[in-house]
Write a structure and sequence with these properties.
Helix content: 40-55%
Number of domains: 2
Number of helices: 23
Number of strands: 18
Largest sheet: 9 strands, mixed
Radius of gyration: 26 Å
Bound molecules: zinc ion
Low-confidence stretches: 311-322
Shape: globular
Mean pLDDT: 83
Length: 579
C-alpha cells in the first residue's frame, strides 16, 4: 500500500542518515528506534543478551510510550489543548506502528504502550489496571494463542509493574530527595526487571546478574536516543543533512548503551544458570520478594542504605529481558505443529532451512517467528501428505524463501497441485530433490540419501519420503520423513547412512520402525514430532521403549512443545519450549 511504501522509504531514510556512524551505533540505532536489527553486529547482539538488554532492540510498549509522550509534550508546547491532545496521541501511535511495520507483535506493543502511557499520565492506578485487564482480555479473544506466548506474558507483566509498582516507588524515592525525573527513570526499569525475572528464568534457564544495573545505567539515554532517532527518520524525507545531524546526536546516546552492554557482558558473573522450571520461577519470585521486603526494612536505617543497594544488585539478581529463546547456539528445531512434521535447521542470522511445513500455516509461522527466522533458504517437503505440506503458506508468509523442493513421487497429486499454486503465488521456484543431491548454505549442509527407488509396500508416499543426512553446524542429523520399515531397511543396506547426533524419528513415532535403523545411526537425541491425542496412536509404546533402551534423550512435541537442539559435542542439549 501507499502507506507501507512511505514507511519503507522512511526506514531506508533512517538507515541512510545513520550510515556514517561507527559500526556499533549504526547497527543499533534502527534497532532502538523501530526494532530493525538487521545491521546489529552479532558480537554486540550477544553482549546485549548477556547484559539483559535485548528487549531494547525489539519494538515494545516503551518505544511507543516514549514517542507518543514526546509528541504530546511538543503539542502542548505549541498550544494544542483539550480534546485535540488524545487525537494527537492517536495519530502519533498509528504513525509509529506503520513505521515499525504493523505486525501483530507491534500492534500488541502499541496496546500495552497506550496502557502504560495513560497510567503515567493520569496517575490513577485503579483505572490503569482496569485498562490493562481489558486490553489483555481483548487481545486474548482476538488471538487465544497469545496465552502460550512468553513474549506476551512478559509484556503484560512489564506493563503491570509499570502501572502498579513503578509510580509508588518513584514517589517514595522522590520523598526521600531523589529528583523526580531520575526517580522515574530508575523505578520503571527496576520494577519491570524484577517482575519479569522469574518468567525469563523459566524460559532461558539463566538469570542475568547484570541486567538490573545495566538497565538502570542505560535508562536515562533511551528516551533521547529514541526521540532523536524518530526525528532523524522523519527528517530524512525532507532534508538529508538535518537527518544525518540528528542521527549523530542520537548516536552519542547510543554510544553509551554500547559501552554499558560491553562492560556488563564482560563481567565474569554476568549470566548464572537457574532451574528452567516452574519451581525455579517460583523460587526466584520468593527470593525477589524477600529481598524487596528486606530492602524496605533496611531503608529506614540510612546507614545501611549503601549495603541495601549491594544486596539488591547481587542477591536479588535478576533478569530479564532476555527472552532467551531460542538458545543462541541452537542448531535445529522440531516445531510444535500438532500431528505433523516441521523441522528447522539454523543457517545463521535469521536464516534457516525448513524440512516439512506441518499441517497448519499459523502454527509453523508462529514457530519460525519464535526462532527469529525471516529468510528460508530452502523448504524441503519430504512427501506430499497433508501433515507435512499444508502449512507451507505459513512458511512463505512474510519471508524471503529461496526455493521449495518436492520429491520424485507425485502422489497424492491434489496436494502437489496445491503446493504448485502456493509457490507460484509467492513467486518461489518449485524444484525436485533427488537421491545424491548435496547442498550447503552457511553452517548447514545436507545430502539426499533416499529414495533411490519406489518401494511397493506399506504406504507408497511414506516410503518415498525424501530422507536427509544433515550437518547443522557441528551437529549431525538424520531427517527421515515418514519412511516405513521397508524403506528404512533399504536405506541402511544402501550404505549411505552414518551415525548421527540427532534422529528425527520416522513417521511420528509410529510402531512401524526397523530396529536396524536405530542401531545403525545411534542417536544421542531422538525427536518425535507428534500431536497430542492424535487418532493414529502415535507415538507407539513399542517405539518409545525401543528408543529408551538406546539411552537416547527423547523429545516429544506433544508433551514438550517445540524442541530445540543446541550446542554440539559434549554441550549438545535438548531444550524445550514447554506447552
Ligand atoms: Zn506424516
Amino acid at each position: 500500500s501507499a502507506l507501507q511504501r512511505v514507511a519503507g522509504a522512511l526506514r531506508a531514510g533512517l538507515r541512510r542518515a545513520s550510515g556514517g556512524l561507527p559500526t556499533a551505533q549504526r547497527g543499533l540505532l534502527p534497532g532502538l528506534v523501530i526494532g530493525d536489527t538487521s545491521r546489529v553486529p552479532s558480537t554486540l547482539a550477544d553482549d546485549f543478551r548477556t547484559a539483559g538488554l535485548t528487549h531494547l532492540t525489539a519494538v515494545s510498549g516503551a518505544n511507543l510510550a516514549i514517542v507518543t509522550g514526546f509528541v504530546l509534550l511538543l503539542g502542548r508546547n505549541v498550544g494544542v489543548r483539550g480534546r485535540a491532545l488524545p487525537l494527537l496521541a492517536a495519530v502519533a501511535m498509528v504513525g509509529f506502528v506503520v513505521l515499525a511495520r504493523p505486525q501483530p507483535s507491534v500492534v500488541r506493543a502499541a496496546a500495552m504502550g497506550a496502557v502504560a502511557l495513560s497510567a503515567l499520565a493520569s496517575g490513577r492506578r485503579r483505572r490503569s489496571l482496569a485498562a490493562l485487564g481489558v486490553t489483555v482480555v481483548v487481545l486474548l479473544l482476538l488471538d487465544p494463542w497469545l496465552s502460550r506466548s512468553y513474549g506476551f506474558v512478559l509484556s503484560v507483566l512489564a506493563t503491570g509493574a509499570l502501572v502498579l509498582l513503578a509510580p509508588r516507588w518513584a514517589r517514595a524515592w522522590q520523598e526521600r530527595g531523589l529528583p523526580a525525573p531520575l526517580a522515574q527513570a530508575l523505578a520503571v526499569p527496576l520494577a519491570a526487571q524484577l517482575v519479569c525475572a522469574p518468567v525469563v528464568a523459566m524460559l532461558s534457564g539463566q538469570v542475568s546478574l547484570v541486567a538490573v544495573p545495566a538497565n538502570l545505567l542505560v535508562a536515562p539515554v533511551i528516551a533521547p536516543a529514541t526521540v532523536l532517532g524518530v526525528m532523524a527518520t522523519v527528517a530524512s524525507s525532507v532534508h538529508q543533512p538535518t537527518a544525518t545531524a540528528l542521527a549523530w546526536l542520537a548516536g552519542a546516546f547510543v554510544w553509551w548503551v554500547v559501552v554499558v552492554a560491553r562492560w556488563a557482558a564482560g563481567l565474569p558473573w554476568a549470566a548464572t544458570a537457574w532451574p528452567a522450571s516452574l519451581s525455579g520461577a517460583l523460587l526466584l519470585t520468593m527470593v525477589t520478594a524477600a529481598a524487596v521486603l528486606l530492602v524496605r526494612h533496611l531503608a529506614r536505617r540510612p546507614a545501611q542504605a549503601g549495603a541495601v543497594a549491594v544486596v539488591l544488585v547481587v542477591a536479588v539478581a535478576v533478569p530479564v529481558s532476555r527472552p532467551g529463546w531460542p538458545p543462541r547456539d541452537w542448531a535445529m528445531a522440531a516445531c510444535d505443529v500438532g500431528q505433523g512434521d516441521a523441522l528447522v535447521l539454523a543457517a545463521g542470522d535469521h536464516r534457516a532451512v525448513v524440512v516439512d511445513a506441518g499441517p497448519d500455516p499459523a502454527l509453523v509461522d508462529r514457530c519460525l517467528d519464535g526462532l527469529g527466522v525471516t529468510e528460508v533458504v530452502a523448504v524441503v517437503l519430504t512427501h506430499l501428505h497433508a501433515d507435512h505440506v499444508e502449512g507451507l503458506p505459513g512458511v512463505l508468509r512474510r519471508r524471503v524463501v529461496g526455493e521449495v523442493q518436492v520429491g520424485l513421487y507425485d502422489e497424492p497429486s491434489e496436494e502437489l497441485d496445491r503446493v504448485r499454486g502456493w509457490t507460484a503465488a509467492a513467486g518461489v521456484p518449485l524444484t525436485r530433490a533427488a537421491v545424491g543431491d548435496r547442498a550447503r548454505t552457511g553452517p548447514v549442509s545436507w545430502e539426499v540419501v533416499w529414495p533411490d527407488r519406489v518401494i511397493r509396500a506399506g504406504s507408497l508416499p511414506n516410503n518415498a519420503s525424501t530422507v536427509l543426512l544433515v550437518r547443522a553446524g557441528a551437529v549431525r542429523v538424520l531427517l527421515t520423513g515418514d519412511v516405513e520399515p521397508e524403506a528404512q531397511r533399504a536405506l541402511v543396506a544402501s550404505g549411505r547412512l552414518q551415525p548421527v547426533d540427532v534422529l528425527k524419528v520416522a513417521h511420528h513415532g509410529s510402531r512401524y520402525q526397523a530396529p536396524e535403523l536405530l542401531s545403525h545411526v545411534r542417536p544421542q537425541i531422538a525427536l518425535v514430532s507428534v500431536g497430542q491425542d492424535n487418532d493414529y496412536g502415535h507415538p507407539a509404546k513399542a517405539t518409545l521403549s525401543a528408543l529408551r533402551t538406546t539411552g537416547a534423550l527423547l523429545g516429544r512435541t506433544d508433551r514438550d512443545g517445540t524442541l530445540v537442539v543446541a550446542g554440539h559435542g559434549r554441550s549438545l542439549r535438548l531444550v524445550t519450549a514447554g506447552r
